[in-house]
Structure formats: structure tokens, C-alpha cells
Amino acid sequence: MAALVAERDAILREALTTLEPTQRQAVVLAARGFGGSEIAAVIGRSEGATRTLICRARSRLRSDLREAMG
Predict the structure, then answer these.
(1) pLDDT for 68 beyond 90
(2) Which of 1, 21, 35, 66 is such that its CA lies 20 to 30 A from the CA of 50?
(3) Where are the alpha helices (DSSP H) in 1-70?
(4) Is 44 helix (H, G, I), strand (E, B) or coil?
(5) Packing angle, helices 21-31 and 36-43, rounded to 10
(6) Could you tell me the pTM of the whole model?
(7) d(CA 65, CA 70)
């Protein structure tokens, strides 16, 4: 079981590296529980632009993870 978790984590880390730095930062902050306004302030974008950025980044991650995990 631990080997599967380690493999999944490695695949996720690899998928995160394919994102643009701002996308990666926003997704990681969201995963750590930061709210939209907080993330927007950190990355220097409006809340609306931040929501769009995160949505697109998550969509790409889902696609990349589906491909990687078969």
C-alpha cells in the first residue's frame, strides 16, 4: 500500500511541475486551505482571474493524472 501511495505522490508532483509557476502556486495554496482572496493577493491577480487560473490548472492536472495513471 505504501508503494502505491508513493507512486501516486510522485505522479502528482510530476504533474505539478508541468503547470506554469503561478498556476502551481495557486493550486498549492488552495490545497493548503487558503481562500480565493488570499491566493489572489499572493499572486497579484483579481479574485475572478484567480478562480479562472485555478480552474484551468486543476483541469490540466486532472487530464495529466488520468493519462499518467491509465
Answers:
(1) no
(2) 66
(3) 2-17, 21-31, 36-43, 47-69
(4) coil
(5) 150
(6) 0.85
(7) 8
The per-residue pLDDT for range 12-67, each reduced to its tens digit, is: 899 999 999 999 999 999 999 999 999 999 999 999 999 999 999 999 999 998 99
DSSP-derived secondary structure letter, 19 = S
Which amino acid, residue 64? D
| Amino acid (one-letter) located at 41 | A
Task: Please state the separation of Cα 35 from the chain's center in Å.
Answer: 14
Q: Could you tell me the three cell numbers for 55?
A: 480552474
Radius of gyration of the chain (CA): 13
Contact, 25 vs 42, CB < 8 A?
yes
Q: How far is the C-alpha of 22 from the C-alpha of 18, rounded, in Å?
A: 11
